[in-house]
Design brief:
The structure is a homohexamer.
Chain A: E1 13-27, E2 35-43, E3 46-53, H1 57-62, E4 68-78, E5 81-91, H2 111-123, H3 128-145, H4 161-179, H5 185-194, H6 199-202, E6 203-206, E7 209-213, H7 215-219, H8 221-237, H9 244-255, H10 271-294
Parallel strand pairs in A: 3-5
Antiparallel strand pairs in A: 1-2, 1-4, 2-3, 4-5, 6-7
Helix pairs in contact in A: 2-4, 3-5, 3-8, 4-5, 4-10, 5-9, 5-10, 8-9, 9-10
InterPro entries (chains A, B, C, D, E, F): HD/PDEase_dom, HD_domain, YhaM_exoribonuc/phosphodiest
Organism (chains A, B, C, D, E, F): Paenibacillus arenilitoris
Protein name (chains A, B, C, D, E, F): HD domain-containing protein
Chain lengths: 319, 319, 319, 319, 319, 319
């Protein structure tokens, strides 16, 4: 039976299935250098670094990142950290009955349900043109939305992370529209669903991990890409490009980073644009905190520092 | 019958009760200068500038800011703006049956109810020490809380504004705690009620208008004043000054402006501190927008610029 | 015969045709206030403030901004500045044979020729898709391009200013492409012609003077408006929206302000985008200097401060 | 006889007592990895890195940071730096007659005398309430003051550093009060003694080396901690919390970092607060320079860069 | 007998000698405008605005800024401020026995003595080359040093202000060199005397009031001007331009503003350069505070805001 | 025949002449550590890291940075990068007929020609005093100008880089003066030739590679050094130090970095100073792009990030 990585302790011998998250062939610096593999093994509970000494040329060619393996090993403490010494390792085969999705970090609820929630929200938009625009753009990325993270590092950086971010924002948006009826709830819904709609194309991700940014992502950026999609939608749906509706949706997307130095070419000038920025910020920041607390050992009083929170750590208060 | 100021039009003759918001004795620059009064008259619907030509020495001594008056006048357009020419003016007497609170801007709901809501929230705090600390500090300013605005200009700058800000934040805080159960709702409530608790002492206000900052307000600031009150409360209530509870409440108050350049000596490092900052920001920013839209004539597409929103104006969208 | 404003001296009596650039009805502060008109009269050589004492109600209704008038007056020094005292004033009639364009500030060369230069540059673009995109977008604003300034205050703020800016940039762009053959001259031309292509729609201008920004201008901004036009052009011309050509042209426009805080959502990442930013900056800054020196009296050693040059003034060196 | 580390040269064989400042058990990357110890040995004159090859398991368990050892070794040059190869190593025993305080960096004068100087300054405060407040707060940390450094890295980062910083500031403060009699010397003394009074509790230090910040240090910060102590002192001493004296002392502490981004929630608004900030800055900056010059080899023209001086190095001028 | 301006009260009739600090000929806005003079009268104790109604053409030509006058008038309150109504006014004549220096603001000690102190400090410099350089540069501006202020607004903005600033800095410098013997006191003295040595040429001042900056002041700046003078001195005195002495003195001057954005092209990298910056800052800031307190009425708790102190006001504490 | 480094492929055996760009003696971490050499070999086409295992003590003493060697080796892939394993290595001898200049990176045209172009430009300066000043300063560094780079990393960081930068700027300057005749072309030429004239003395470079900054470079900086040279030139040539010509040339040099935080003590206030800054910026930025594209393998779509371009990479567009 596989041991979860977060339960491994110094001296444990273990056998189990893991994902190779990182792999590098290195050589010892002895006078006759020998090959070994420097690995990071992962499962859904965490990750551990590992060494496979005396790797053969065949081994070096066999294993690669995101490859599922069965490993027998022993846990040691090295430089105050746990490290696995690999004794035996092989790639998994069909009969092992394991799937990569069992080993990756993902949103805390089922992605299928998240997508249904988003689609319900789209259907509930009353204004026909707004609903059509949102539908058009959502269809472009629906498939990628299953797995897409919301960001590379900062927040919701896992499988289904973007969908999860949108759904939580929709909940908060609904509350705010109820508390402040002067806000147009169709625009709030549209803004929430569309604000990061081009992220799955801006970023190249696999299993919820961002590998790189696409060329479009670097040269145009997800904010302007989404603005272009709205233009495309309007033309294809026969909506006047100069109408206030198109202007409003574009404004929501363009301004949602709030400041020029954060990537927004214009600043929020609609009530819904002001709301959208703060709904996005609150959900992202609180998720960073929640995720960081969950992935920090219970025994630690302080989390690691969080880049998106002014490089501050979070204290695990017990009162 | 009194005409509401927002309904006055060019050429109108009017009689009514108003509040003198500003008053200055000036002299014409004719070779034999003559005295006149330069006034701003206000009621709960707005304000208008006015001139009282040929004011006597007695007039100059009679009228003062925040004085209620009965005025007969005529409306003119001067430099593209409406202006009242005062024909007759006298101070109100008891028989007129008017009260200053009818003429000032105030929170959109009854302050009495707001204070009850805050007290209910205090009572609902489960943790004894937290509840005692909040009670102690709230008692210090309960009386001033009736009228105190939340700020001089930026947001909730009116009678009962601070209480209104707190109550709306409590609603939002309740939602967030429900959505994210890892947050401690006692701390969220305490943080919301206490975050600006020293503002009524930091600012010298009358009828919801800030006249100045107190010496304490300038030299200590409301954030550190509140921190001192918590220390005082702990000593008087016999709570250990070094306990995590005191540390946590102080941290919430000290960090709620988020950044040093915004006045916080430490940055948020508790989950509830992160939440508190964004709850505060969202409520303040959306209220600025809502207030500005309400005090801008319906006929205007754009509000004036809002200092607290990067000096941007808000567009009154019609879709 | 009309006296040019820049030639008026203290004590001069004059008769001539002028443009009313600003006008305000004011009242003296004598005890029986009297109406007068506070004016700014302009011709193509400059502007002068003027007073028309004892204006009648009819006068106040007759004259308005941008109205052409015949004026008889006398020049006085008031508070160390020249000021005209208006003796007689009337609106011009057809027989006077004067036209508003004689009285406004405009680019130093004929706009007609500038537009021809731009169109020649468009025709010289070799790459078919680039040329088609540029043609499509240019057609949208060709008519407005006659009069459109390049900015409200900073630079080229006059009739035909945008066209003049583009043509000078094309000259500089041609030189740079010749000096550095690794640059793609089609992209340089496209970038130059398109970089401010949406400005005539972003700004509401009359006779080369910007009166305001349009709603689109405020909520979308000329950079994103131009990006949208490129999307529209691609769809209507049947060019692949995902192609490198579309991506490159969009990138040039989006990045030409160089930094987020200057309004660009992405930073230059094509050689031609780097070049475009500096071609734009150099032309704008040097034109500010040249224009300011030309509109500053020869007798002044220092120009007024120039906002676009870190609020520095320019010294008129004589060596 | 022990060789001072700063006198060791390439090829020297040496025997002596040292402090283990850092220690890490590592393994060679040979195919059969072997344990060795990577050390930093220190005495009061400096530090040197050292390797103990072929360390046994017992060795790895025996030695730890801040442990005193007797070492026999030889000095080699490795990658252009001196390094000791350890031949024999053992922990010191009582008979060796060595004490840890002989091996740590400390203030250039006796801490005992520094504390007496501070206490003399306290006694010389004329105003009773000020003197009582300072006495109360000083008593809280008097014991820790013996060893406490003034900062982790920036300045006075050694045994007794804080006391030394205070005493030098008192000298400078006395001069300034003499030069500018409008300053209140009681407040200057109080401000100097109290400005960093909470640092020994903000930081967890051992032998003058800061190991970490305490939870209070991170969540409240030494500035607000000191403000709280003043509140506590006032209550316990029966001094009116609203009095100008309490307000003044709190203001001095709260404002002494001068700017919000440097951690002060209010900016200096008393003459003594302005003076305090500059007295603190001058002493800290000059001490950084003096310390860095003293710990840089005489043969070096330039010191390493100093973080607290805009990352600039200091030139050792010889004129 | 002349009444000091700071002693004038509402209703006072007075006769006395004053300096015309500002004067402007204006016209009333009656339909037949009449001339009057808008004045600011000053003496060494303060200033008061004044009106001279019914001024004749001769009056307008007679009086000018910095002109000494004898005035008979009466004090009135206008817009909550004291204002003098001038009844009779004439220029002073020789027999009046008054001199302009009696009416201007100046350093609190005799300038003559300040210059002697500076010259004593120069003579006390031991290093021959440093002393020669300082002497050479000081001779360039010795005459102007009598009257030159240290800045336009910020600090020491009065007759002899620069000399006073230098002398107080020399006192502080002497203390610091005594406290920290590793500092070279010759360099400290040279740096203090030379740091603003070119200011009398950078600024055009009269009677201690800066009227403008010179062309050199704007285009080169006093820091680089002083650097050039050192080069000139070295050449004329036959000192090696590449020597460490010249490099050190230039470095002190160039770096004394500490940061690039404050005008220093290099940052302090000599111990004496670090000291010089803080000696300069401390003296300038404390003098701002002292001057502002002295020119604010004793009855005021708060001074006006001080630009050089982050726009903060100073509180006049009474304990 | 020597193989160019950029043509080496995995598995290649090669013999050739190379430059040792970096060299470090290391030891393997086997229990009996062995010496080896860690090298970077370079030729004009690029660089490759190399290991020389089993180096003898003699080898370690024989080879040094910038030493030319003949190497026999084999190419391997190590950690995804090419690496050479050295089999035999010896220093070159005279008979090998190789020279260091064949192995270093240099400007793309002959330095000899660049220097002639600069001298032609100097001769073409019409104004006698400007030409003399430029000649004087240029003579100071003419010899160093052969090899001097324009910067340590940012741009033109190679043999002859500074001369190449100047010549390209002169071409651009000539165009700008032709396009905008109000610019004084003598000043433009002088500014271009002199703007970095002190860099060869500010930086210590060898074969176009900057090893360090000189003491003068650190303490005075090239901008102020050049200003001093102009002062020296004026004195030695008998030109009035206070003349507008000297002031103008100094201003051009002092202001060419545009902002204080970029090192300029004054900001551009002459038309030619504004032009000079943008000519410098455009040439530097475009050269960074061009150089980076040329040294990035053709197969790479993106260059590495460029520090001088806001840390952005450049995309190699193919259209």
């Amino acid at each position: 039976m596989t041991s979860l990585i977060k339960n491994l302790r110094d001296g444990d011998e273990f056998v189990g299935f893991y994902l190779i998250k990182e792999i590098e062939a290195k050589q010892t610096s002895s006078s006759i250098p020998k090959d070994y593999l420097d690995l990071v093994l992962a499962d859904s509970s965490g990750a551990i670094s590992a060494k496979y000494w005396d790797a053969s040329k065949t081994d070096i060619e066999t294993f690669f990142p995101m490859c599922l393996v069965k490993v027998q090993g022993v846990v040691q403490v090295y430089r105050e950290k746990l490290q696995a010494k690999v004794i035996r390792i092989r790639k998994t085969v069909e009969q092992d009955g394991v799937s990569i999705t069992d080993f990756i970090r993902s949103a805390p609820v089922e992605v299928e349900g998240l997508l249904q929630d988003i689609q319900k929200a789209i259907i509930s938009i009353i204004h026909d043109e707004i609903r059509s625009i949102v539908t058009f753009c959502f269809e472009k990325v629906k498939d990628k939305m299953y797995s897409s993270p919301a960001a590379k590092f900062h927040h919701h950086a896992y499988y289904g992370g973007l969908a999860y971010h949108i759904v939580r924002m929709l909940e908060l948006g609904e509350f705010i529209c109820h508390q402040r009826p002067f806000l147009n709830s169709d625009l709030i819904k549209a803004g929430i669903i569309m604000h990061d709609i081009a992220k799955p194309v801006e970023m190249i991700s696999e299993y919820g991990m961002v590998l790189d940014y696409s060329n479009q992502g670097k040269l145009i950026g997800h904010i302007s890409m989404a603005a272009n999609w709205i233009t495309e939608a309007a033309i294809k749906l026969g909506i006047d490009l100069e109408s206030d509706v198109i202007m409003a949706i574009q404004h929501l997307i363009l301004s949602h980073h709030n400041l020029g130095e954060w990537g927004s070419p214009v600043q929020p000038q609609l009530p819904e644009a002001v709301a959208l920025h703060y709904i996005d910020a609150m959900d992202a920041k609180l998720q960073m905190v929640e995720d960081m607390l969950q992935t920090t050992a219970e025994s630690e009083q302080w989390t690691p520092v969080i880049r998106g929170l002014e490089n501050k750590a979070i204290y695990r208060l017990k009162i």
